[in-house]
Amino acid sequence: MPIAENIAAVRERIAAAAREAGRASSEITLVGASKMNDAAACRAAIAAGIDALGENRVQEMTAKLAENAYDGAPLHFIGHLQRNKVKQVVGRAVLIQSAGSLELLDEIDKAAAKLELVQDILLEVNIGGEEKKSGFLPPALFQGAEAALEKPHIRVLGLMTIPPADADREANLAYFEKVRRLFIDINAKMFHNEFQYLSMGMSGDFEDAIRAGANMVRVGTAIFGSRNYAQPARQEVT
Ligand SMILES: *Cc1c(COP(=O)(O)O)cnc(C)c1O
Prior knowledge:
Blueprint (H helix, E strand, L loop, with lengths): L2 H18 L8 E5 L5 H9 L4 E4 L2 H9 L8 E3 L17 E5 L2 H13 L4 E7 L12 H12 L4 E8 L7 H22 L6 E3 L6 H6 L4 E4 L1 H4 L14
Parallel strand pairs: 1-2, 1-8, 2-3, 3-4, 4-5, 5-6, 6-7
Bound molecules: pyridoxal-5'-phosphate.
Pyridoxal-5'-phosphate binds next to strand 8 and helix 8.
């Protein structure tokens, strides 16, 4: 498995983009998006020094947790989170990157209170205003931040975004830059400039995201290879 080489190659590209932007590569956190990759792949990424692993699906995360797939690296939750599954994620993922609605903030706060812990989150921004995507629309983001600030069992560490998948490179960059401006603004006005993470950029665009100010990138395909979504149905041969 070339996972270690892939991570080394991604790190080099991160370093080059960071240099261009006048920043140190050590400022950029590399999260391996390990959905649909098994525990062995997760362990290989951890052995190769990945900074964190991010999962998308609660069921898959729970199964891989039972296999100790993430031992040695911080686990993030980065996928769409349903309210009725929040309990299975709070306290297990050290960072929930996809907190994108008032209802979800409520659920996370309640679950964290029960466990007597403070859950670190990122507020997800639906920067393209896409109807089917989760995340706060830009005009609702301040309200989301305010709500989060009022919850004793939530700590907001920054913002996360996924621009529309069909945006061309220029439009994509413009989305990243919009989110960076929101980050700077909210951070200064509401969080005493204590935000830690601006999470944006995936395999196809993490260099542009870094140029636009990201300090956390979530990379799947470029590390683990392409995912096989069309899993063959098991057929009984008679
Ligand atoms: C899958 C996923 C990624 C990584 O996508 P790649 O294009 O495979 O790098 C990043 N962020 C989220 C939220 C994802 O679901």
